[in-house]
Structures are given as C-alpha cells and as structure tokens.
Amino acid sequence: MVEGKAVDLNGDGHTDRLLVIEDGTRPDGPRKLLVLLGGADGFRLSAEADSVLFCRECGGTWGDPLSSVQAGQGWIRINHDGGSGWRWGSSHTFSLRAGRWELTAQEQYRRSPERLETSYSVPPSECQNTDLTRFVCGISLPETLLVASKRAYFYQAPSPASRGSSYVIAGQQITVRKTYRTFVEASYLGEGGRSTHGFLRLADLKPVDF
C-alpha cells in the first residue's frame, strides 16, 4: 500500500477508507485508488480507479509524482507534481453524486526553469469520461493537423471564455499534444523558431490529408 486515509466520505457516521495500492514488482507498475465504504458489517468496495494515479516513476527527475490524496465528506482530491527543469502539476477533485464519484474540478499548472508559472482549469465537460472508475480527460496522442478556418485563435485553457489574441491561419500546421472533447492542446512553430502554445478549437482544424 502506498497511502491510506480514514474519513467519513458519505456522511453516514461510519469511517470509510481510501487506499492507494500499486504493483510492487516493477517501478513503473500501475497504481489503483480503492474507495471502501464502512458500515455495521464492515467495508464494501465503492469504487476502484486505475487511470487517475501516475506510477512511481512517472514524475521525471522530480521522483514519485503523487503529492497527496485528500478527502472529506463527499469529495476526494488527487494531487500530482513532477518534471525537472520544467515543472508540472495537477489537481483532480471528485464529488459524490447519486452514489457515483464524478469529476467536479481539475487544475493544471506548468512552471518554467525561470519560475514563470501558468495555470488553467479544465472544465469537466471537456473530459471524455468524468466517472472516477472510468476516468479519461484528454487523450495524449501526438499528431499534426492543419488549420481549416481563416483564423484559429489560441485559448489559455480548453474553455471558450479564455480566448487570447494569438492565432494561426488556414493551411498552417500545428502539433497536437492532447485532445479533449472540443479543444486540443497544441503548439505552432513559426518563423525564426518562435513557438506558440495553447488550446485550439477542434472545429477550426482538419487532418493533413483532408
């Protein structure tokens, strides 16, 4: 067991358990989060999640990326930190709704070697699956796409309210790092090697061979 917590998660007066376990046979073995609800007859498994925790060696030179697992009545929060010269971190909050643990908040940050930090929120509506037991939020599948619209603006987060002033134009190629439901995290390499990074609307893009 990597970590364990005792807390009344559902407010029924019984102590519940949160357990983080891992495959100890290899350092990059997968980790699982187990949610055990207590009762008069002992504990029962409420949720088992195998896609919300990074492995022990997934934090880069910073080491084990699991910073903490926090919990209170009706909520669970998982915090990760990692990187080397560039640092990154994430915080995922799941709330108990009608007997299911659903993502209700997600925060991300990056910090450059010069300690310049950018942070943003990912709306749960941009995730492919918000259920703790089947969690998928952003698919990391690098690919090259073409700009289809006359102008495609960069956003500071995968949210329509965060549009910036930088944009790319029709026919230019962008490199996708992660794909959400209606946005992609992407970068554009311009003249002189200047790179622009942010989020673009999927509706403004098309495959290279389209």
TrEMBL record:
This is VCBS repeat-containing protein. It comes from the Bacteria.
